[in-house]
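Q: Predict the assembly, please.
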Amino acid sequence: MSAQPGDWPDRLFETLKRGGIRQVAYVPDAGHARLIDRCRADDEIRDVALTTEEEGVALAAGAWLGGDRAALLMQSSGVGNCINMLSLARACRFPLLMLITMRGEWEEFNPWQVPMGSITDPVLELCEAEIFRVLEPSEVAGIAQRAVQYVFGQERIAAVILSQQLIGKKVWTK
Amino acid sequence: MTLERRAAMATLLAERGDDLLVVPGLGSTTWDAAAVGDNDRNFYLWGAMGGAAMIGLGLAIAQPSRRVAVITGDGEMLMGLGALATIGTQCPPNLAIIVFDNGVYGETGMQPSHTQAGVDLLGVAGACGIASRLDVRDEDRLEDLARQLKNLRETLFARVQIAAAEPPRVLPTRDGVALKERFRASIGVKP
Ligand SMILES: Cc1ncc(C[n+]2csc(CCOP(=O)(O)OP(=O)(O)O)c2C)c(N)n1
Ligand SMILES: [Mg+2]
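A: Predicted assembly structure:
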């Protein structure tokens, strides 16, 4: 079967696997639902559901101290929950791979997503994260792969930003 | 009855063994750990308030054949209470969370913390599904805790009631990159 545009979460999953990611932490997000399911079903990946995203920044640091590679999945509002904890990654140069689904930027129905969505990129830049933005399904694998290389090769912070255009509109009326 | 913090730390880390990895919380518990003897397998925190327990969790998952002790303050633990819920769902058998509870934010001038007002961290840990818990109020229980730590078989949460005193600061290096590198090198993690 050929790849479908909606399969991009599978490309992310494959990239995480190829990159040797052993711990995947997340606060659930609709845009990450399929990737979370894949990680939960995988025997080699320890999936860690968090109560708040900043826990994942600390978890990833501990994982690296012990030799594991971790990834942190969140939606853009979660970036705001992480700001001070990102000091840990910055002060100690812990590798940190964040996969962030955007809200509040493209045909957003919920205005409460806009305040954080509109400052997600600059906040991440101020926190010394390299931004890898994905607009098209066909770019997902390549860009995510570059981010993995950047993070673990150089012990740096990267945010793979999955744009709302890529994810599609959230369905509000069922 | 309350315990003296430096003596309590010394008891917990006496003959610690090569397989014990220690994550002290920012401030006082970091000074305590440094005071009882610097060790490459201490990952001292100078910040990241609320993150100590989660660093311990990531480390415990990554290093299942070693024991991990997070030893932190009540204020630091309170900032990351959600971590206890997360740890309750994971329960790595090699993780101990030990809270030095003096009922105050000692490092910032002894302001009362929520535990002084009755917030019960042992109760929170229990409600989060951490079955093995120890309330340490005297030397005997502290010895119990030290024994359980040596023989860690399931996620353990302990509250150690310590006096609200401020022994002289003993400062380890502040260089986070150096702390990280020496820690990883000491347990043989590849670059
Ligand atoms: C996010 C954040 N808020 C506030 C502080 C200031 N601060 C430094 S240590 C500390 C807490 C100390 O309390 P506790 O963990 O109980 O340790 P103790 O000194 O009492 O042993 C606080 C609030 C900080 N470093 N970071
Ligand atoms: Mg305190």
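Chain B has a mean pLDDT of 97. The longest strand of chain B covers residues 67-73.
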